[in-house]
Amino acid sequence: MMRIMRKSLVNVRAAAKEASHERIVDAAARAIRRSGYDGTGVADIMKEAGLTHGAFYAHFASREAMLAEAADRAGAQSNAVAASVVATVPPDQALQALIQVYLSKEHLESIETGCPISALGSEMPRQSSEVRSAATRRIKEMIDLIARQFSDWGQPAAHERALVTVATMVGTLVLARAVNDAALSNALCSATLKSLTATQPDSTD
Questions:
Q1: Rounded CA gap, 126 and 121, in Å?
Q2: Is 114 in a helix, a strand, or coil?
């Protein structure tokens, strides 16, 4: 009986630690998009997660390890949203719908929960290889998701068009967020949406 009780207690503690870890990573994923990598401090993240600063090293070996998980989580969340958009419309409308959502006013104003590439891209060259690897993996997923919307998916041409599409979408959002002129911001997104949807070949049947 004591052995069973001890095992049960260990399981409860492990589950509690896992739940705490998830809260930390989610808080960090929001924080890096909101404040940037350099503006994301351990103390603030732990406070937002409802934990003490001293508990940090029970979950991560270093701040860089936390940032890498945060980058991975932010990318996963963004890609999940994109995948859900694709799944809710007919295949021939998926790419246009995805571009529209990405360049929407709602996404433009949702930097804390939106695409981490557009929020953090300019900071990436100065990050550790651990953080960059996590972000790169999610960027590749985004490119692949776009490429899958083309009828010639799997061919080099489809991958190349996906690279151009992602680069254009991300670059547009960066510029639209950078300017303090609402009309210009809207014009950037509208022009890119018009250009991308006009030049893309038919998506998957």
A1: 10
A2: coil
State how far the alpha carbon of 94 is from the alpha carbons of 87, 159, 192, in Å. Answer: 8, 16, 17
Q: How far is it, in rounded angstroms, from Cα 32 to Cα 52? A: 19
User: In which region does residue 80 sit, left (phi positive, over 0), alpha (psi from -120 to 50) or beta (all else)?
Assistant: alpha
Spatial CB neighbours of 153, under 8 Å, sequence gap ≥ 6: 147, 204
Mean pLDDT of 145-159: 95
Which pTM was predicted?
0.86
Q: CB–CB of 201/147 below 8 Å?
A: no
Q: Which residue has the higher pLDDT, 11 or 99?
A: 99
Q: How many Cα atoms are found within 13 Å in the side-chain-facing hemisphere of 170? A: 19
Structure tokens at 78: 């963004």
Token pair 């052995």: residue: 3
